[in-house]
Every structure is written in C-alpha cells, then in structure tokens.
C-alpha cells in the first residue's frame, strides 16, 4: 500500500510548512487527486488518518478533489473528459489519446489553519 508512504510524505511537508507559519493548527489539507495518478482515494484517506495519529495533524481532515482525465484529441481538435482510463481514446472519434491534459495530479492545493 504505497498510499501510506504518500500520506507520511504529505504530513511531513504540511508540518514543515505549518512550522514556518508560526503557532498554527492545521484543520484541513486540501488535495487534488487525478484519476490517472495511481493512488486509491479510499486507501489514501484511511492512510492519512492513521499517519496523523500522534502528530500535530491528528484530527485534521483530508479534503480530496478528484480530477478527471482530460485529453486533447488532435483529430477533433478539442479537449475531452474521459469517464474511464480504458480505453485511453477520444470518446468522440475513438482516436488514441496521445495528449493527456489532466488526471495525473497528486498535489496539495491548500491548508486550512487556525491560530
């Protein structure tokens, strides 16, 4: 379960950032998670809760915004959202999707803090 190592790494980064802000408490961590990131949302939420135990982040929330896979189809000359990564092709013309525009995200976008 690599989600636990991802959660531990996120927590290290968040704690480092919070320490630079002074005496603040992190209430929530906001994360963008792409459907193509290879990370299971439920496993990450579970791992985050376990990894926060005994740290200053214990009791904080992990707020996940799921990002769909969006490709650019050169044949149709437009972006298209995919409902599934398989097949990785344009839902309009079925051309192979060679240009993935979003869906690989795994990034912290914001922290909710209180003083």
What do these coordinates show?
- There is one protein chain.
- With 115 residues, the chain is an alpha+beta fold.
- It has a single domain (2-114), classed as hypothetical protein PF0899 fold.
- The protein has helices at 2-20, 41-52; strands at 25-34, 61-67, 69-73, 78-82, 99-102, 106-114.
- Strands 2-1-6 form a 3-stranded mixed β-sheet, covered by helices on one side. The chain has a 3-stranded antiparallel β-sheet with strand order 4-3-5, with no helix packed on it.
- A hairpin with a 4-residue loop joins β3 and β4.
- α1 packs across α2 (41-52).
- The longest helix is centred in the first third of the chain and has 19 residues, at 2-20.
- The model has no long low-confidence stretch (mean pLDDT 95).
């Amino acid at each position: 379960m690599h989600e636990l190592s991802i959660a531990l790494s996120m927590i290290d980064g968040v704690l480092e950032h919070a320490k630079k802000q002074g005496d603040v408490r992190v209430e929530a961590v906001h994360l963008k998670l792409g459907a193509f990131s290879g990370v299971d949302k439920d496993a990450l939420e579970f791992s985050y809760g376990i990894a926060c135990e005994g740290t200053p982040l214990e009791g904080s929330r992990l707020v996940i915004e799921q990002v769909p896979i969006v490709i650019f189809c050169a044949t149709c000359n437009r972006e298209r959202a995919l409902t599934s990564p398989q097949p990785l092709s344009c839902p309009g013309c079925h051309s192979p999707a060679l240009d993935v525009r979003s869906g690989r995200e795994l990034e912290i976008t914001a922290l909710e803090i209180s003083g």
